[in-house]
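Format notes (please read before filing issues)

Several people have asked whether sequences and structure tokens are stored in separate files. They are not. Every record keeps both together, in the order shown below: the sequence lines, then the token lines. Line labels are part of the format and must not be stripped during preprocessing.
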Amino acid sequence: MSRRASWAFQRSCRAAAILAGGACAILIRSAAALDVTGYTPTVNDRFTSGFPASPVPNTSGSFVGAAYDWSGVGWSTTTYAASSYKGFALLSPRHFLTAQHYENGGLLTQAVAIRSVDGAVVSQANSGVQNLGYGAVVTNAGVTANDLALGTLAAPIASPTNVARYGVLDMFSTSSSTAYSVYNGLTVLATGRGASTTDSPRVGAATVNQAGILASDPTQTVVLTLQYGTPSVQLVEGDSGSPLLSGWTNPNGGKELTVLGLNSGVSGTTYDIMSLLAAPGAMTAAAAAMAPTGYALRVVGPTTATWAGSSSTNINARQAWGISAPGTAPSDAYVLFNGTTAGNRAVNVNANTNLRGLSFKSTGSGTLGFTLSGAGTLTLGRGGLTNYDTSRQTLSATVALGASQYWDVGPGGVTAAAINTNGWLLEIAGSGTARIAGAVSGSGGLALSGHRLELTGSSTYT
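Then the structure lines:
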């Protein structure tokens, strides 16, 4: 945060007051870098040298982010208020999460740089910033606005195979839930600036103290606070705007960085204030802002049910999911299909079914794919579809989109029959071939950022 900026939260310095709708001014701590208790370069520096022109990654196993791919976390090509390079997280090869108050201050007329997986440092001009209308309310340069914003680059910064594309971590029990307490106690990775302009950006582990909404603005201002405890991370001048990340083990067992939101400000000496992108309205707003350029917001979440397929193959039967009475079959949930453990890989979509996201676990076989067929319609929500397997997955039942979404068809590919876009965008990615044998209909869109898409039906989508 710049000392020259006119800063004020229109809310509170303490978590209890934040959620009740109090008010306070943001305080600027005197430290010169992200304040991490017990800071050591080996543990907390993302780079060992060369930042920002030719940064050398910290490959130590002691690095707090060692398990994850950091190639999607970039920085501005010039400093802001002569104090620091600002940090961003890529939500697609062309979109990045940023703080609205930097646009107010003029920073985001500058380019964004990123170090790709193959070691190249590349940059791309920023072509605009769109306020998402969510997040903490901040005043800067005479403008008061919610702090979550989406930046759009003039062109994709690099191939998606070389730069990480982060998903937003969706932990809600339903797609419409606003029970933000599901994030309380979550371990996160806060990012911020180094001790001097050219020192490596820092990363520190912290814990979410409390997530919630402001009583005076219950729709848009969704924030969370980080407790200053052990481990301890405290934001200082220049740290706001950088992404707040969380490590996640995906349904295939892989380690991924996910995005929760961004740093919005320091409130006293007890809490940091973060704007939560992982709020239903904020995710919808980000997806809508990305869609015109053919990219969908990746949304990921923990699976709550795994297909058993032994005593039943009906998708709406609890027994088919290995769920005992009085439980019910999953609905509006993230689910997993594992060809190695499934008693039957023929899934009968015997009734209209709504699932928030599908994942197919890698089996290492290439011959254990699933077929989802039947008279019912399978509606997929914001989590879309991910195929980790070398087996082809077949969706013979009619598919309808319940939100804009991202499909990674993986190495095995996916074959789908008819797809009704319902006005949403479907982005198809992955190294395998996607085939749509029936008609694509509706007023939504279809975009390809993967290897190959084959359309063999007579589509009518607009």
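For reference, the curators noted about this record: The two ends are 44 Å apart (CA to CA). The longest strand covers residues 202-214.
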